[in-house]
Amino acid sequence: MATGQIQIDLERGAGGFRHLHTCTCSLCGNKRPIRERILEKTKLAKSGCHEWTGKIAADGYGIIRVNGKDVRVHRISFHLSVRPIERHEVICHRCDNRRCIRTDHLFVGSRADNNRDMALKGRARNRNTGKPTCDRGHPFTPENTLKTQNGERQCRECRRQRLRRYRAARRAA
After folding, report:
1. % helix / strand / coil in the chain, to the nearest 5?
2. Residue 74: pLDDT band by 50, 70, 90 thresholds?
3. 66 & 116 share domain
4. Are the C-beta atoms of 159 and 140 separated by less than 8 Å?
């Protein structure tokens, strides 16, 4: 592939999404092939990503209207270029660019795989990120903060109290 050109093989694949090659619904008014619609709203970024320039959802992922529904573009790209996607499967980005639809930047995983990938790359946010104290008021100091395997912050004092209650309940049983 020449520099500056984007080529996406969206002709293969079937199943999963219905009628993906051409959207002919009266709701969105598009009767052009999906491949054509995707390519006209995709640009080659300096990073090598194929970035979606069309509609972007609030969470930062590219979306396209297909048969009256908004669908994530990276999922359609993967589905048609690589293989059909099961509902429980997550399409993760190796490049961490939510707008990227380049299929060799995408891989199939579970939600747990995606969360682990986010934590390893330092992108994970949990409910304790940025909070000065835990829900019970203990400060998140270096001495009182435990980092779990998936990158979450936990209060050590709350964990100690939880373990004490658990052990007391086991002794009483």
Report:
1. 25, 20, 55
2. very high
3. yes
4. no
Residue 25 covered by a domain:
no
Q: Are residues 145 and 80 in the same domain?
A: no
Same domain, 38 and 113: yes
The number of C-alpha atoms within 13 Å of 136 and in the hemisphere containing its C-beta is 11
Q: Are residues 110 and 83 in the same domain?
A: yes
pLDDT tens per residue, range 84-118 = 888 888 999 999 899 999 999 999 998 888 878 87
φ/ψ (deg, to 5) at 130: 85, -5
- Encode pLDDT of 25-62 as tens digits: 444 556 778 888 888 999 999 999 999 999 999 888 99
* Number of compact structural domains in the chain: 2
**Domain enclosing residue 147, as ranges:** 127-173
Instruction: Classify the C-alpha dihedral 16-42-60-97 as positive or negative.
Output: positive
- Quick check: is 20 in a domain? no
